[in-house]
What does this fold into?
Amino acid sequence: MQGLMMNAPLNISALIRHADRFHGDTEIVTRLVEGGIHRYTYSDAHRRSRQLANALASLGVKSTDRIGTLAWNTHRHFEIYFAMSGIGAVCHTINPRLFPEQITYIVNHADDSYVFFDLTFLPLVEKLAPHCRGVKGWVAMTDKAHMPESSLDLLCYEQLVNGHSDHMEWPEIDEGAASSLCYTSGTTGNPKGVLYSHRSTLLHAFGACLPDALGLSARDVVLPVVPMFHVNAWGLPYSAPLVGAKLVFPGAQLDGASLMELFESEKVTLSAGVPTIWLGLLNHVKSQGVRFGTLKRTVIGGSACPPAMIRTFEDDYGVQVLHAWGMTEMSPLGTVNTFKSRHLDWPEAERQALQNKQGRVIFGVDMKIVDDEGLELPRDGQAYGDLMVRGPWICREYFKGEGGDPLRDGWFPTGDVATLDQDGFMQITDRSKDVIKSGGEWISSIDLENTAVAHPDVHEAAVIGVAHPKWDERPLLIVVREPGATVTREALLAFFEGRVAKWWIPDDVVFVDALPHTATGKLLKTKLREDFGRHKLPGT
Amino acid sequence: MQGLMMNAPLNISALIRHADRFHGDTEIVTRLVEGGIHRYTYSDAHRRSRQLANALASLGVKSTDRIGTLAWNTHRHFEIYFAMSGIGAVCHTINPRLFPEQITYIVNHADDSYVFFDLTFLPLVEKLAPHCRGVKGWVAMTDKAHMPESSLDLLCYEQLVNGHSDHMEWPEIDEGAASSLCYTSGTTGNPKGVLYSHRSTLLHAFGACLPDALGLSARDVVLPVVPMFHVNAWGLPYSAPLVGAKLVFPGAQLDGASLMELFESEKVTLSAGVPTIWLGLLNHVKSQGVRFGTLKRTVIGGSACPPAMIRTFEDDYGVQVLHAWGMTEMSPLGTVNTFKSRHLDWPEAERQALQNKQGRVIFGVDMKIVDDEGLELPRDGQAYGDLMVRGPWICREYFKGEGGDPLRDGWFPTGDVATLDQDGFMQITDRSKDVIKSGGEWISSIDLENTAVAHPDVHEAAVIGVAHPKWDERPLLIVVREPGATVTREALLAFFEGRVAKWWIPDDVVFVDALPHTATGKLLKTKLREDFGRHKLPGT
It folds into this structure.
């Protein structure tokens, strides 16, 4: 027997329509890639999204077509999000920081029919175009006055928008239909596409706004530093219109001074980004001796947030850090670090230790840790195992079936090793493929690396497992010394004593000049395993 | 093209499973109907819900069966919510304050196979039973020691639960399936059933938790005074486990002293109820000279909240009032009164005036006002028209098609007349059927009644439209004087001058000893129109 409530599909167009109707004069502010500040409202954005939708139709774009973007966080990118998904096409955001060969692969794999790009990326686009034969047109996201010289026959974004009426009603779309696409680049193999749906996007937006997640309200002014090409800027372009929060887009200028200027002039209350960005911002703030006038909370994710950064924000500047964790495959939010009642009474040191964890599960995400056999391990904050997730905004397979069926018994394996406690706080201890299996027990390579870099003479460190006849694997420490430093193998190994369990201490140290990284800056452990996997350990 | 996210249906069982897994030791506290305080956790509640689910199966309850409850807010009622919906049956909450004939009608119309009841309602149940032939069993919600003597062959709740294992997995249920049922009693005709679905219930729970709605978090302790037989206690039994908030159930004792005792002993941070309840509580608090130790917010809805009550809570006690509006047909939340950024800078008097409105639309509900032809009127805070709503947690038709198709062009007519402003703030000015149409313009009967009762000699007042040869309708004021008061027709009409537009002033006054009301205390205007609809106005 069916319930008798309205059959109202969860459509992305409902977000911009809601923001227009009930938050119509709330502002969206952009630092333009061409220079200067652009300022308009949700009503304007909705109107121009409809104009763009009509323009897309005139270009022959059909529902389910993929359209690429190589773009910063701007009002135009925001319009593209809603225009494309609104008509049932798929908004395919591309990370311009990938290698050009990877981008070419992605554009061709996605069959993008058009690509919209910011002027910054013209040289990149001119390099890609000859290899992307399926692309019918390249659209420069600027006005006529700023249209660049190019070997390509470019379309002009503002001419497209202004050349069309805003008269249209968003079609009702099956909520399971694809709405946007984002490729994730692993350390091996080709990038794989995660194909979000209208439903997953809206449920994620609801979850992200919860008080125990980002706590978004109409009183917030949100500046997403995290790029819109990186998992839809963690969903903020959807969550903000859901609650009618003012949006501030920083465009191409992500340095501390430029961000701080916008924070203050636009009275930003919430921001979000990766630790590297905040490092730049904090350096600027410290060196200039300025303070945040209105910033209340900042979401830090993408990689583990250094404890010192949390303390600086909270203790020195009174800004709450929302330490968060997620994945492209998770839309991305999985956990956010907010306290429960009981933690408010904890001693400060314990509360601070808790904040270093990746956070608590929000409803919509279910999470467990399992052992090698797939059996669930206790949620006691001690046991660690492979972290598995499931829920309506989590990927069930990659675009075009790349990589086969990723699920195990209906759960998505995150590739992380983690602990979970009874309150749902999760802490990542390692990547599954990097964990070192020694005598049937697991050793966290991340913990060892963090310990190593705490030594003043260590510039960067990596730990990999190396084959061992008795223990299966033992840890090998690979170190880049600080310039001029001369720390020895013995001194480094002694440094671990008392800092980690005795049997975790690496069996050997290799000194190198540099460590290999991926295009997005991740440590390339596959290469290290190739080079040092057969390193002969002392005593073997 | 479908998105490639997990097909995870929105099921009510996911809420209790989540609360068990990640908020397992968070408490649920109940003032027992039998006396004393009961205290356990979400994990306990989940375990007992599974035991009850097995018990229901043993009674032959099948998916889609309706099961009635005549019960207060208690942990047992909470278990029933999750056990019944969890196995796909329909939890049918019945308002015990209705006339017994209405309850009989409702039980039979719903085809309830079992009815669960609190001991308070045994006399009522014994009266109903002979007329409810379809009910296979009446379950007393108590333990063996408290089982009452009865002419009926009663089942005992605790024996049922304890007699069964907790071993079961909640089945995956089509999210559109019916989960619960609540009848709404109008002033005319039989009560009509609103049949909620798993999907509508979960989406509503997400919406209710938003910072601009009730702002629920794991740091909250929630005491729903609003009954679980009244639109699922405004959804709080679902919203609280979604975020892991502690729940406090007041049982049958809703007097100020009993509530205050729980507020303080359990450190309640959020409560919710109708103005009448708060009146009793505030009287108690004032007379005892006590203060709220932990209460931060209180949701007031069900009928318009008197401005003085808002001021008392906020100014005298520092408790934020969340003035809210909804309907049984809306699950129920439609609007909640929370400020936008700009309102924070408004002069106090203007902010206070804004708080008297019913609040702002939350995402998930779309809202418009229309004229007699169904054309949308401006959202300018001035124009008023029939209030129409739509969205995924709004009713599309009543159970068994009672009353035919209620929708107009896909919108549900609320039966209210309201204004909407550009920020989405809605203010109800009248019921559609009570508004007085004079010379093509509308006059609000509620505004006139509020003006009349502001006169010290007026105990209660009603205004209805009476036929007029020139203006179609003109307002007639019907008044119950305060005991001993002698205010005259002329004095009363003079009282309106300067308080309402001149052409709104009633044409005549009738004094009566009492006004007719429904079982739930609403003014019965149909009866007044029967008795006074042909009243001869002066000058006609």
